[in-house]
Specification:
Chain A has 16 helices and 22 strands. By secondary structure, chain A is an alpha/beta fold. Chain A folds into three domains: about 90 residues, Beta Barrel (OB fold (Dihydrolipoamide Acetyltransferase, E2P)); about 170 residues, Rossmann fold (3-Layer(aba) Sandwich), CATH 3.40.50.920; about 180 residues, Thiamin diphosphate (ThDP)-binding fold, Pyr/PP domains (Rossmann fold, 3-Layer(aba) Sandwich). Chain B contains eleven helices and eight strands. In chain B, β7, α8 and β8 form a beta-alpha-beta unit. The chains are: A alpha/beta, B alpha/beta.
Chain lengths: ~500, ~325
């Protein structure tokens, strides 16, 4: 009886990692609890322990292998006395990207008719949605990662011929902070685990080493307090970057974000501005349930005096975070844990700063306008791929900034397509897509050929169970169904 | 020593004496606040000032004692009973009054009102409507001072009611941890709106509220400007020398209601009368000045001057225009 040792996950969102090295060799005896290998991701390092007593019969993935998918068998432990040769037939190494998506897609079937989540839809769109979902469940070509799409449309914002560098959103955010800290000594980072731990999600990796403890400040677990300290320092002329380990914890601090940071310029008749960035991962990660999976975009986007940014890719993340740090206003910068590890092309410019308040057409099209932001772009872009195969050319708009919201770009698109679907992971009532629908009917009513629809997170707290969590989030199938519904197809 | 009637610690082992000039400064500055607040009360009654209006009458010695110990450049931050702190910071009475009246000449162009006023030039960082907010914000101002190493001290005031808010202790912890130059001054006027301190606080010696963070604390008679000044001297020097925060509980009393619409049901008229008669911070100074040989006439002149400044401020506020309607949309973003 042999036991497979699987590539472990270091976090719920980890999909792959590097098998850094083996500490045992084939043939070595191992006891349960023995450290047999070391695994690395861009976030952390972890030791793999043997779970059974026996002999390390076979190493399936050699030390130094990158991009080993979670749950890939990496070794075989045989019982004492068992022949190592018996273990010869084992699954080959599986790399990320090679996995068969069809199984994942099959699990993504939305609720049955009658149980359909309360999405907005006219007439018999329920049926259309179900039909689309069934279609989506059939094996589809390899899904496009969020990161692969945007680079071509970023191009107009960077000079012709600029070299592009591939990096994760995590690296892009770190570089943005490091560059701004080099540029302006008033910029500093403060938050939980930002310094010695190198960031709970490794976004501040290396900043302590370069800038020292004075400018990279670990705090106690005290969100309300350090948000207020940041605001006071910003009133007094510094430029704090306040990291929330996740935006769920910003609810502890929302009083200072809204009452102190957002309102003081107005309340002081323009005397006291608050140049501060509140940043961190927002929205659902994976399997962390209701209190760690909330999307606050709509909450903050409602507040005058705040700027709210939510990038979907590394390039926008870098250019917009640099802009946010330089901005003289309080900026709520909503990142996304699932997007941190996604790689995309970032212009290799000495000072790449993007304009705040400008949407980006991520994919041009003429038939229907899909509007989203942050991780919502994942669904929108994948849906656009699927729609294209059915001859529907969707124009996909990434809002990037939620406040101020670049509705002009959306309206121009809707005037062209006559149809609009807004997508977000947040809850439906009073959400970002509710605002988009309102503005579109107001400013492009005569151009609309169908009601504006939205695809949102479901109107429930986030469940823990994997299947329920999937149902609670928007899906590509729902976006496809909504797009077809507004096209009456 | 604690008096049975007022519950305010009077008498310290040795009360540091003021020079005559210091007594005159304290008298003049406290009286200006007193007269200003009396006028604000009148204007509220006339409907010139609206909304909430929290008067500082009775507490003048606290902010003036601290001000006399402060150096130019030290910053003031407080909550919404803030008119006295603004005057102490050197802000112009007429522009403070205009703000109370919601006029365009006010410090916030009429958009902040009584509770929300600021002046960067006077180093006054509010004026905050959330009672505990000054603690972390004042600590943040101190963080900037430490970051720059400019030797400034953040003077951060809040009430005993606010001292029960969690954010105060979050601020205490960080201020102590990072040795921030901030003096926390709790103005204990004994009533959080209508709730007497012993009904709201398990530990009513508020100077001990920093003990868990090893912040030195001192409970003082906040009705005696000399005692406040001496305590503030010590606290500010402690901070300026890089020792971290310091906590002062200044025991004081407000003569007026919590705000202008106070039912006055939670304490007796006799209690208020006794405090006014026996402990008035301005009267104490006046008596000492008289005993020192300063003439009644000279003191009356000072009073007349304060009344003139306040009357001019009221005239300015009333004559000033409301903000231009276009101001609704300005100062939302920088």
């Amino acid at each position: 009886m042999t036991v497979n040792v699987l590539m472990p996950a270091l976090s719920p969102t980890m999909e792959q990692g590097k098998l850094a090295k083996w500490l045992k060799s084939e043939g070595d005896a191992v006891k349960a609890g023995d450290v047999i290998a070391e695994i690395e991701t861009d976030k952390a390092t972890m030791e793999v322990e043997a779970v059974d007593e026996g002999v390390l019969a076979r190493i399936l993935v050699p030390g130094g292998t990158e991009n080993v998918a979670v749950n890939t068998p990496i070794a075989v432990i045989a019982e004492e006395g068992e022949s190592v040769a018996d273990t010869a037939d084992h699954a080959p190494i599986k790399r990320v990207g090679e996995e068969d998506k069809s199984q994942k897609q099959a699990e993504a079937v939305p609720p049955a008719p009658g149980q359909t989540a309360p999405q907005d839809q006219p007439g018999d769109a329920n049926r259309a949605q179900t039909k689309a979902a069934v279609e989506a469940a059939t094996p589809a070509p390899k899904a496009t990662s969020v990161a692969e799409q945007p680079s071509k449309s970023v191009a107009p914002e960077v000079p012709e011929g600029t070299t592009m560098v591939s990096m994760t959103m995590r690296e892009a955010l770190r570089d943005a902070m490091a560059e701004e800290m080099r540029r302006d000594p008033a910029v500093f980072v403060i938050g939980e685990e930002v310094a010695e731990y190198q960031g709970a999600y490794k976004v501040t990796q290396g900043l302590l080493q370069e800038f020292g403890a004075k400018r990279v400040v670990d705090t106690p677990i005290t969100e309300y307090g350090f948000a207020g300290v940041g605001v006071g320092a910003a009133f007094a002329g510094l430029r704090p970057i306040v990291e929330f380990m996740t935006f769920n914890f910003s609810m502890q601090a929302i009083d200072h974000i809204v009452n102190s940071a957002a309102k003081t310029l107005y309340m002081s008749g323009g005397q006291i501005n608050c140049p501060i960035v509140f940043r961190g991962p927002n929205g659902a990660a994976a399997r962390v349930a209701a209190q760690h999976s909330q999307d606050y975009t709509a909450w903050y986007a409602q507040v005058p005096g705040l700027i709210v940014i939510a990038p979907s890719n590394a390039s926008d993340a870098k250019g917009l975070l640099k802009a946010a740090i330089r901005n003289d206003n309080p900026v709520v910068f909503l990142e996304n844990e699932i997007l941190y590890g996604k790689t995309s092309e970032v212009p290799a410019l000495e000072d790449f700063v993007l304009p705040i308040g400008k949407a980006r057409i991520a994919r041009p099209g003429k038939d229907v306008t899909l509007v989203s932001f942050s991780i919502g772009m994942t669904y929108a872009l994948r849906a656009a791929d699927e729609l294209a195969r059915e001859g529907i050319e969707a124009e996909v708009i990434d809002l990037r900034t939620l406040r101020p919201m670049d509705m002009a770009t959306v309206i121009d698109s809707v005037k062209k397509t006559g149809r609009c679907v807004a997508i977000e992971e947040g809850w439906p009532q009073c959400g970002v897509s509710a605002e988009i629908a309102m503005r579109v009917q107001l400013e492009a009513f005569d151009y609309l050929d169908a009601p504006v629809l939205r695809v949102t997170g479901k109107d429930t707290p986030m469940p823990y169970a994997a299947n329920l969590e999937k149902l609670a989030l928007p899906s590509v199938a729902e976006v496809v169904a909504a797009a077809k519904a507004v096209m009456y197809r | 020593m604690v008096e049975e009637s007022g519950g305010v610690t009077t008498g310290a082992p040795t009360i540091p004496a003021f020079t005559r000039d210091q007594e005159l400064t304290a008298f003049r500055d406290m009286l200006l606040i007193r007269r200003f607040e009396e006028k604000a009360g009148q204007l509220y009654g006339m409907g010139v000032i609206g909304g909430f209006c929290h008067l500082y009458i009775g507490q003048e010695a606290v902010v003036i004692g601290v001000k006399m110990a402060a150096r130019d450049g030290d910053q003031f931050t407080t909550s919404y009973r803030d008119h006295g702190h603004m005057l102490a910071s050197g802000m112009e009475p007429k522009r403070v009054m205009a703000e109370l009246a919601g006029k365009r000449g006010g410090y916030s162009k009429g958009k902040g009102g009584s509770m929300h006023m600021f002046s960067r030039t006077a180093n006054f960082y509010g004026g905050h409507g959330i009672v505990g907010a000054p603690a972390p914000i004042g600590a943040g101002v101190a963080f900037a001072n430490a970051y720059r190493g400019d030797g400034r001290v953040s003077l951060t005031f809040f009430g005993e009611g606010a001292s029960n808010q969690g954010q105060v202790y979050e601020a205490f912890n960080m201020a102590a941890l990072w040795k921030l130059p901030v003096v926390f001054i709790v103005e204990n006027n004994r009533y959080a709106m209508g709730t007497e301190i012993s009904r709201a606080s398990a530990q009513i010696d508020l100077s001990k509220r920093g003990a868990a963070f090893a912040i030195p604390g001192k409970q003082i008679d906040g009705m005696d400007v000399r005692i406040v000044k001496a305590a503030a001297d010590e606290a500010i020097e402690w901070c300026r020398n890089g020792n971290g925060p310091y906590l002062i509980e200044a025991q004081t009393y407000r003569y007026r209601g919590h705000s202008m619409s106070d039912p006055a049901k939670y304490r007796s008229k006799e209690e208020v009368q006794k405090m006014r008669a026996d402990h008035d911070p301005i009267e104490q100074v006046r008596m000492r000045l008289i005993a020192d040989g300063v003439s009644e006439d000279e003191l009356k002149k000072i009073d007349a001057n304060a009344r003139k400044i306040v009357s001019d401020a009221a005239d300015f506020a009333m004559a000033d225009k409301e903000p231009d309607p276009a101001e609704l949309w300005t100062d939302v973003l920088a």
